[in-house]
Amino acid sequence: MTTASSSLPVELVVDILQHVEPHDLVAVARANKALHALSLPYLYNRVQFSTDSTAEQVLQLLSTLQASETVARLVREMALDWHDQDGSQYWDEASKVTRALANVLPATTNLASLSLPRFFHTNTVLKILEGVSCPPVRALHLYPTSLFVAPPFSLLQSLDRLSLWAEDISYQWQHDYDSTRSLAADKGSLSWLSVTSPSTLETLMCIVPMGSLRTLVIDPRPSTINVTSNEHYFVHIRHLPSLRTIYLLKWLSCQMLAEYSSIDPFPHILTVGISLCHLQEPFGYNPYRDVHDTMQALATIFPHMHTLDVRCEEPYDSEGLPHPHLRPDAALQKFQMLLLPACPRTLQRFAFLTKASFARTAEDAPFVRVPQLAEELQ
């Protein structure tokens, strides 16, 4: 097998690794010093997602990384997605990987981000979380559909970013925290939070200090969208003093905006993220009128909004064809033509991102300044 030289550019090393068989990845990891520039998710997923991969191969790869001199530089993020396809065999394999992680993680003193899948068993999740609690990770993304046992609260309280994909954790965690004391105004390290239900947000407000929270992503599952949850979200948001950015993905539609435009405004919110399908949701038959009405409702609820971050969530339509919003030039031009006359005076810039760009933060988004757009379209 031909391996990449350590002097090759990282991009070329990645390209070469695309053609390496999974069972050879371990040898490549041992032989190539250039791998310090690659992240563990790439190597891990290359082994895991192949049809002939086994837990033993993953264990071998992890043990190799542990012994590597470059492990501290190599491990910056860890994305685990061990699919529970057909029963206990996969739980056994996940448990083996978990035990390997427990040995590898303590040595990775600069582990920045950990992402766990919805298919991991709760005990597996907890074992991994205990392994990364010291030293703590800075970003944690939990995607199990329900966590029946609370993670270490000390870990949650030390995070900069937290994403929790769970409909309701209050019932399972009710004996582990004081539900009568809110930490919404207490200073902490958490600056970015993504939740799927108001009850999850309410529970976290009793566990994690949120006085430093600046970005809230509301990305609900369909079963959590109802009038009551909408009202609860608004109540909770008012108790977050440092919040400046809010993403209303798949939650707040234009019709809801119109209904809630009479509520007390949120003057401290400066950046609003919204789905393109909601921004262009028809009030009638005039697309210019639709966007104008939506922008007016947004401006009423968020009177100091200076940044609009528009996300196109669905890449394909019902027939499996590319969504018209994702035909870059035409879609962006149409959006700009609709947005410009509807802009409130406070709006200074906007971004137009597809689902592939969702992981980017607001600071990274390719924003366009409104005055610049006006000049270009004249």
SSE topology:
Layout: H1 10-17, H2 25-31, H3 40-48, H4 55-67, H5 71-74, E1 77-79, H6 88-104, E2 113-116, H7 122-132, E3 139-142, H8 153-156, E4 161-164, H9 170-173, E5 192-195, H10 198-204, E6 215-218, H11 227-237, E7 245-247, H12 254-260, E8 271-275, H13 276-279, H14 287-301, E9 307-312, H15 328-339, E10 349-354, E11 368-369, H16 370-377
Parallel strand pairs: 1-2, 2-3, 3-4, 4-5, 5-6, 6-7, 7-8, 8-9, 9-10
Antiparallel strand pairs: 10-11
Describe the structure.
- The chain contains 16 helices and eleven strands.
- It is α/β, with parallel strands linked by helices.
- The protein has two domains: 1-115; 116-377.
- Strands 1-2-3-4-5-6-7-8-9-10-11 form an eleven-stranded mixed beta sheet.
- Strand 7, helix 12 and strand 8 (271-275) form a beta-alpha-beta unit.
- It is elongated and about 55 Å long.
- Mean pLDDT is 64; it is low at 1-17, 33-55, 65-91 and 356-365.
- This is F-box domain-containing protein.
- Residues 2-47 form the F-box domain.
- It comes from Exidia glandulosa HHB12029.
- InterPro entries: F-box-like_dom_sf (IPR036047), F-box_dom (IPR001810), LRR_dom_sf (IPR032675).
